Amino acid sequence: MAFYNKVGTMLRHSISAQSSLSGQTSMFNAIRCMSTRLFIGGLSYGTDDQSLKDAFSNYGDIEFARVIVDRETGKSKGFGFVNYHSEESASSALSAMDGQELNGRSIRVSYAQERERAPRPSYGGGGGYGNREEY
């Protein structure tokens, strides 16, 4: 999945450079597949959902902003996600906020990648008492 996102990014950059030189809009721009969800890394452990939303709200209408916390301790893991309603807002936020300082830490902003789910181990369970016809 990461490979396809990287290829898509390279295509977007090359096509947008070509279209800006020729002054034409490309078909690719009309059907682009950018994301509206951003990954925010390097967050201060003091950053919460509201402060993350406040920091990114200047770039467009935010659907949600979430700092990921540890299940057991409830403390921040140092990263989070911001989801915008439009691709343009996400793109402008990425350009403006990547490498900027937030709560004393330099943050990294990139398009979020879909996490591949690892197959759950099967322990052969399922219960039961074997062949029911024997009883």
Describe the structure.
The chain has helices at residues 2-22, 27-30, 49-56, 87-97; strands at 37-41, 62-69, 76-84, 101-102, 105-106, 108-111. The termini are far apart. It is built from 4 helices and 6 strands; from the N terminus they run ααβαββαβββ. Strands 2-3-1-6 form a 4-stranded antiparallel sheet, with helices on one face. A two-stranded antiparallel sheet has the order 4-5. β2 (62-69) and β3 form a beta hairpin. The model is unreliable at 17-33 (pLDDT under 50). The protein is an alpha+beta fold.
What is this structure's SSE topology?
Blueprint: H1 2-22, H2 27-30, E1 37-41, H3 49-56, E2 62-69, E3 76-84, H4 87-97, E4 101-102, E5 105-106, E6 108-111
Antiparallel strand pairs: 1-3, 1-6, 2-3, 4-5
Q: Report the sheet with the most strands, covering strand number, pairing sense and barrel closure.
A: 4 strands, antiparallel
Distance between the termini: 51 Å
Q: Residue share in helices?
A: 25-40%
Q: Please identify the structural class as seen in this structure.
A: alpha+beta
Overall mean pLDDT stands at 79
What proportion of the residues form beta strands (DSSP E)?
15-25%
What spatial order of strands do you see in the largest sheet? 2-3-1-6
Q: Note the quaternary state here.
A: single chain
Strand and helix order: HHEHEEHEEE
What's the gyration radius in Å?
21 Å
| Total helical elements | 4
Number of strands: 6
Low-confidence regions? 17-33
Net shape: extended
